[in-house]
Design a protein that fits this description.
There is one protein chain. The protein is of the alpha/beta class. Helix content is 38%, strand content 17%. Helix 1 crosses helix 8, helix 3 crosses helix 4 and helix 4 packs across helix 6. The longest helix has 18 residues. It is globular. The protein starts with 9 loop residues before the first strand and ends with a helix.
Length: 253
């Protein structure tokens, strides 16, 4: 199956510190490539897989479920661990959810986590309709390209695959239930104006984890896909500096 232009996975060889980047629901590695390129210039080894069902055609994604997406991220983590002395995990939107799930399951193998508008739930009253609609129609209007910056575009599906969306809700519930297992250092960025992920997700994260080293940065000039938006440089530079300050901490302790 042909891959959408720009949607290919990417990786950069670098030093002993690895960073796993995970893209969002219906998105592709394209949304994280500028971030990955910046981190690579700082000397980090970078891996950003294309999650199953993403970046081809919408029907492919309706054939996948959250364990498929998580399994892809988990394998990428295992690959990084083989070539790096320590690994950080970072994610955008659902990629942040998968990063949190990795921290819950493999926290002893991670040095820290960087999140950009991670999703963990919703307060929308119509969410129950998704399961019903998924039995009738394959997709609904999309949530992609929520970007404030003029001219910036996200390579993503224009519609939401509903069977996959039902599975996303299951990922939310599974991940939120185990937040107390997370005690890693966390840097999280949250857009104050996000038309995809609600403030609930940020509250669930901060209230649920056991981590004592948690930094939240508010982004005032970006929408949901902040890694392609006006505050992208802030994300890139702050995350690189934060990772540099935390790399080696587990070894030294």
């Amino acid at each position: 199956m042909p891959v959408l232009p720009g949607a290919d996975p990417f990786s950069f060889d670098g030093g002993p510190v690895g960073i796993l980047l995970i893209h969002g629901f219906t998105g592709t590695p394209q949304s994280l490539r500028p971030w990955g390129e910046h981190l690579a210039t700082e000397g980090y080894t970078i891996s950003c897989p294309r999650l199953p069902g993403h970046g081809t055609v919408l029907a492919d994604m309706n054939l996948t479920r959250w364990p498929d997406w998580y399994g892809s991220a988990e394998r990428a983590l295992e690959d990084l661990r083989r070539c790096c002395s320590e690994v950080f995990v970072a994610g955008l939107s659902m990629g942040g959810t998968l990063a949190i799930r990795l921290a819950e399951q493999h926290g002893e193998h991670l040095s820290g986590m960087v999140l950009v508008n991670p999703s963990l739930g919703t307060e929308r009253k119509d969410i129950a309709l998704v399961k019903i609609l998924a039995k009738v129609v394959p997709s609904w209007k999309g949530v992609s390209n929520d970007i404030k910056k003029p001219g910036a575009r996200e390579v993503a599906y224009p519609r939401v695959p509903l069977k996959a969306a039902v599975s996303l809700q299951e990922l939310w519930a599974t991940t939120a239930a185990d937040l107390a297992k997370v005690d890693l250092p966390i840097l999280t960025f949250r857009s104050t104006q996000d038309h995809v992920v609600e403030p609930l997700s940020g509250r669930l994260l901060l209230d649920g984890v056991r981590s004592t080293d948690v930094t939240e940065r508010l982004l005032h000039n970006s929408y949901h896909v902040a890694t392609l938006d006006n505050d992208a440089e802030e994300i890139f530079t702050e995350s690189a500096a934060w990772i540099a300050s935390h790399a080696g901490a587990q070894t030294q302790s």
